[in-house]
Each structure stands twice: as structure tokens, then as C-alpha cells.
Specification:
- It is a single chain.
- The two termini are 25 Å apart.
- This protein has helices at 17-30, 78-84, 104-107, 117-124, 132-139, 145-156, 164-171, 177-189, and strands at 5-12, 34-40, 49-57, 70-75, 88-97, 126-130.
- It contains 8 helices and 6 strands, in the order E-H-E-E-E-H-E-H-H-E-H-H-H-H.
- It is an alpha/beta fold.
- Strand 4 (70-75), helix 2 (78-84) and strand 5 (88-97) form a beta-alpha-beta unit.
- It has a single domain (5-108, 115-189), classed as Pyruvate-ferredoxin Oxidoreductase, domain 3 (3-Layer(aba) Sandwich).
- One of its GO terms (molecular function) is oxidoreductase activity, acting on the aldehyde or oxo group of donors.
- Residues 13-189 form the Pyruvate/ketoisovalerate oxidoreductase catalytic domain.
Length: 190
């Protein structure tokens, strides 16, 4: 693949975005791609915005994705999808987790969580909604939402040549490997 692909992962601190990005980057590198990754934590430990930018292809010179350049955005939280939508290119795709994490202004009553975010996103861009939270609960661990989203991303990009199970075994703590492999395959099914 000569064309560089641009992937933006967005969400809220504590959702496992950094781990998902590391799994993605490692899998792509193992498959022979040149990969550049950039991450911004913000106030991640306080529920702040977290983003990672992953670019891969035959040769990648910079990790930065500009506005209108992302081929795909994977949003782990709905409001973060809306916040970063301007980075999606006109032919890009949005994969969004149907999950809400209220920000501090919402928790204090200063603002309200927008009600029709998913409809608004669908009106603007090619959007696939994944209910990763419920899927993760059914698997027995809500914290596997990130790997469910990664599985969905891998399917959307057609990344079948990557040894995803091997990458999960290498980067995930041993006691969580089996459930994360299940989560990854569940995401591919979605």
C-alpha cells in the first residue's frame, strides 16, 4: 500500500485509547508497514480528552493528522466524536461507540449532554455506531470496550494480514489476554 492511511482515535481518559493505539501500531509494524503514532493525554486521568493519531503505509514521514485528513475516526465516546469530526476527510468513515461520559460542566449542571449526537453525526458523515459497552458487559469486562472498537476498526480497514491475537498476547497483561481476544473478535463481527 503506497498511500498513507490516517487514523484518529478519540475518547476520554480511562477508556483504554492508548492501549488500543499501541495494539494497532504494533500490529501494523509487525505486518511490515511504516507506522507513526502521536498521542495527547490532556487531563486524561480526570476524564479529559485523549487522542491518538496513527499513520501507516509504505513510508510515513510525520505522525500528525491535520483537519480534513483522517481516513477514519474511531470515537470511544459520542461527544468526543463530535469534537473531532472536522479532522475527518470528506470520504472518511466514523466508527463511534454509543457511550456517554459526562464532562465536568454536565456533572455540575452547567450544561446538558447533547441528546441527538448520533443523528447529527450520521447526517454529517458516513457513520457506523457500535454498542461496545454492552458488548463488553456481555463478555464480562466493561474495560474491553477499547479492544472491541479496535476489532471493528481492523475489519473496517481490511487489516486481515495482521496477527492480532499475537499482538494482544504480547501487549496485554496475561490474566486479560483471553477476554481481550474474545473482545477483538466480537468487534470484528460488529
Amino acid at each position: 500500500m503506497d498511500k498513507v492511511k490516517n487514523i484518529l482515535l478519540v475518547g476520554v481518559g480511562g477508556q483504554g485509547i492508548i492501549l488500543a493505539s499501541k495494539l494497532l501500531s504494533k500490529g501494523l509494524m509487525d505486518a511490515g508497514y511504516d507506522v507513526k503514532m502521536s498521542e495527547v493525554h490532556g487531563m486524561a486521568q480526570r476524564g479529559g480528552s485523549v487522542t491518538t493519531q496513527v499513520r501507516y503505509g509504505k513510508k510515513v514521514y510525520s505522525p500528525i493528522i491535520g483537519k480534513g485528513q483522517a481516513d477514519i475516526i474511531v470515537a470511544f465516546e459520542k461527544m468526543e466524536a463530535m469534537r473531532w469530526i472536522e479532522y475527518l476527510n470528506p470520504n472518511g468513515k466514523l466508527v463511534v461507540n454509543n457511550y456517554s461520559i459526562p464532562s465536568v460542566p454536565i456533572l455540575t449542571g452547567e450544561a446538558q449532554y447533547p441528546k441527538d449526537i448520533l443523528d447529527e453525526l450520521k447526517d454529517k458523515v458516513d457513520t457506523k455506531v457500535i454498542d461496545a459497552a454492552n458488548e463488553a458487559r456481555e463478555l464480562g469486562n466493561i474495560r474491553t470496550q477499547n479492544v472491541i472498537m479496535l476489532g471493528s476498526l481492523s475489519k473496517a480497514l481490511g487489516l486481515d494480514e495482521v496477527d492480532w491475537e499475537g499482538v494482544i498476547k504480547e501487549l496485554v497483561k496475561e490474566k486479560y489476554i483471553d477476554i481481550n481476544i474474545k473482545a477483538f473478535h466480537r468487534g470484528r463481527e460488529l
